[in-house]
Amino acid sequence: xxxxxxDSHIAVLDIQACLGxxxxxxxxxxxxxxxxxxxxxxxxxxxxxxxxxCGICISLCTxxxxxxxxxxx
Length: 73
Ligand code: SF4
Ligand code: SF4
Hints:
binds iron/sulfur cluster; alpha+beta
């Protein structure tokens, strides 16, 4: 993931696919993913104001539950 892509994309979580393993929470350096993910995943979403689109969480998710989408302007 290069910076130009990171600047215009954010991660979104598919709560149907998420197993709540917490790996994404641990690796997110901007703390954009709430730590209670899994327990209350239906109520939570990745904080679009904190996510920089680095993609690290996506590479670690075994469920392919996180995707990058184009951020709104
Ligand atoms: S790594 Fe994937 S399965 Fe695990 S909590 Fe994050 S989104 Fe859910
Ligand atoms: S893409 Fe990067 S900054 Fe955004 S939620 Fe995933 S690990 Fe955190």
